TrEMBL record:
Subunit (UniProt): Homodimer.
Chief location bin: cytoplasm
UniProt protein name: Glutamine--fructose-6-phosphate aminotransferase [isomerizing]
Subcellular location: Cytoplasm
Length: 609
């Protein structure tokens, strides 16, 4: 993961770099650093363990100045989080470099460089890159050529940006497997891992392609492709962000984003009153592609994977289309038998997740009819490389635990169910019913949010627990998985989800008074079976927390705590129960005092394997 920002201007850039890092902190936050070239052509370096705020403090105490600089916020892969392992890494006080990704042949390169007399001050894979770059510079290469020669020796995935105190006007960078965007200014130019980092200074961007190398000065900007040809890449003018990434009155981004869901869902749905969902919502030529689709393969990671698991029920039950769902890190390495007529659907909030991207890129020739991505970030790699695109309109999601991105992905999948379903098992009336139900979703979520105080009260019972079990049946099983994931991510309580029918095949052995059991009981056709499963828990002394449809017949009794949920159409239940479980996890984490928006060891965008 990690976030990169770089700037070359005629003005002081330290504040631009720091603001960029603040906006990139979702990519990693265990250490941060910044290198500037000052007026005397010296490198000025700050590196701090901890969040970007620590780097800001260091810069405030000992201000460094410069019009050219690079900065980095880190999520450790090689080497523990520490100031010594933080980027930028430097070689001979001359060249400084930041890196996002993993260099797989770092051990071989380190041995070679050691033999040539280079000393290593960190445990990172990155430090080999800066020393290698230095070898070419001292051999007389320009900074650009030195970077190209360095990149040719690297195996792995990376985005790299470098500066050289002896070439004090320029920044060079290259990408292979990790994102990098150029921000085009007026008399100044920038680079970053994500355009969001640069929105404060420009709205004009050039998204680099795989293998591109770029050189920027305050007034010049040149790009070379993988083959070394000078190329023109299209410039994209991105209008002002639709919504701010300010916290407003909320204590945490996660809570803000949970509360933004009614608006995000409505924006993703689009105008009310539409009679049908047009194929074109999925991109140009979608209709002709959908006509050929006989089955669907969904691939994703984390919370996005859970959205895919929910979608399988809709695609099979409502649309009548066979559907497989797999985590990207498994899918990409599995030897697969081709499924003729299958649509590959990747799902990703960020559009940059390394395994999901590799799954898309690794498809065999003719394996799929086409690829569709459901993503929240426009211009991201998955968006640019997929045949069809559905953009969720969740707006920027800052909290590491995904909330509004997930529920908007569910909306996208219901819309996909409609467009594919009308070609298969979904009749006209059923499609209309689905659409009408969908437009009620923002209000139903709003109503669920009004249960916040009750959920907070329930959450108090979890604070001292070490473990929790989540149960669901049918389409609510993936919701139980998502509820457990939310709780473990941000409260560090070990949480597992099981399909309730599996209870007696193992997890029941864990049930005692110390193990809270959360059940998602929406009152569908599996309700009676779920009730028997819950009795099994109760009769073993377990404490039950049941999120139940208010018509499902659950009431509070000793060791059974019921949170009455609004009644709503079946297709909306996965989303509204998720919202309730998001609030549960949030309140448990707040009371435990964890860092809700930036939980330990995690990052929002996982751009390494
Ligand atoms: C990380 C995030 C999760 C997210 C997952 C997949 O693990 O912390 O919140 O669900 O990556 O990310 P994506 O951007 O592909 O949805």
């Amino acid at each position: 993961m990690c976030g990169i920002v770089a700037a070359t201007a005629r003005r002081e850039v330290s504040e631009i770099l720091l603001e960029g890092l603040r906006r990139l902190e979702y990519r990693g936050y265990d250490s941060a650093g910044m290198a500037l070239i000052d007026n005397e052509q010296h490198l000025q370096l700050h590196r701090q363990l901890g969040k970007v705020a620590e780097l800001e403090r260091a810069q405030a105490m000992t201000p460094h100045h410069g019009c050219v600089g690079i900065a980095h916020t880190r999520w450790a892969t090689h080497g523990e989080p520490s100031a010594a392992n933080a980027h930028p890494h430097i070689s001979h006080d001359r060249v400084a470099l930041v890196h996002n990704g993993i260099i797989e042949n770092h051990a071989t390169l380190r041995a070679e460089l050691r033999e040539r007399g280079y000393e290593f001050n960190s445990q990172t894979d990155t430090e080999v890159v800066v020393h290698l770059l230095h070898t070419y510079l001292v051999a007389g290469d320009s900074l650009l050529d030195a970077l190209k020669s360095t990149a040719a020796r690297l195996e792995g995935a990376y985005a790299i940006a470098a500066i050289d105190a002896q070439n004090p006007d320029e920044v060079v960078a290259t990408r292979a497997g990790s994102p990098l965007v150029v921000g085009v200014g007026i008399g100044e130019n920038f680079l970053a891992s994500d355009q969001m980092a640069l929105r404060q200074v420009t709205d004009r961007f050039i998204f680099l392609e795989e293998g591109d190398t770029v050189r920027i000065t305050a007034t010049e900007l040149s790009i070379w492709d993988e083959a070394g040809q000078l190329v023109e890449r299209p410039r994209t003018d991105v209008p002002d962000a639709v919504e701010s990434v300010e916290l407003g009155d909320f204590e945490h981004y996660m809570l803000k984003e949970i509360y933004e869901q009614p608006r995000a869902l409505a924006a993703t749905l689009g105008a009310e009153g539409e009679k049908r969902i047009e194929d074109a919502r999925f991109g140009e030529g979608a209709g002709a592609i959908f006509d050929r689709v006989q089955s669907v393969q969904i691939v994703a990671c984390g919370t996005s994977y859970h959205a895919g698991l929910v979608a399988r029920y809709w695609l099979e039950e409502l649309a009548g289309i066979p559907c497989e769902v797999e985590v990207a890190s498994e899918f990409r390495y599995r030897k697969r038998a081709p499924h003729p007529g299958t649509l590959l659907v990747t799902v990703s909030q960020s559009g940059e997740t390394a395994d999901t991207l590799a799954a898309l890129r690794g498809q065999m020739a003719d394996e799929f009819v086409a690829s569709l991505v459901i993503a929240n970030v426009d211009h991201s790699s998955l968006v640019r490389e997929s045949d069809l695109v559905f953009l969720t309109r969740a707006g920027a999601e800052v909290g590491v635990a995904s909330t509004k991105a997930f529920t908007t992905q569910l909306v996208a999948f219901l819309m996909l169910t409609a467009v594919l379903g009308r070609r298969h098992a979904l009749g006209e009336a059923a499609e209309r019913e689905l659409l009408n139900a969908l437009h009620r979703l923002p209000d139903m979520v709003q109503e669920t949010l009004s249960r916040d105080a009750d959920i907070k009260k329930l959450s108090e019972q979890f604070i001292l627990k070490q473990h929790a079990l989540f149960l669901g049946r049918g389409i609510q099983y993936p919701i139980a998985l998502e509820g457990a994931l939310k709780l473990k991510e941000i409260s560090y309580i070990h949480a597992e989800a099981y399909p309730a029918g599996e209870l007696k095949h193992g997890p029941l052995a864990l049930v005692d008074a110390e193990m809270p059991v959360v059940a998602v009981a929406p009152g569908d056709e599996l309700l009676e079976k779920l009730k028997s499963n819950l009795e099994e828990v109760r009769s073993r002394g377990g404490e039950l927390y049941v999120f139940a449809d208010r018509n499902a017949g659950f009431t509070d009794e000793p060791r059974v705590h019921v949170l009455q949920m609004p009644s709503c159409p079946e297709v909306l239940k996965p989303a509204i129960y998720t919202v309730a479980l998001q609030l549960l996890a949030y309140h448990v984490a707040v009371q435990k005092g964890t860092d809700v928006d930036k939980p330990r060891n995690l990052a929002k965008s996982v751009t390494v394997e």
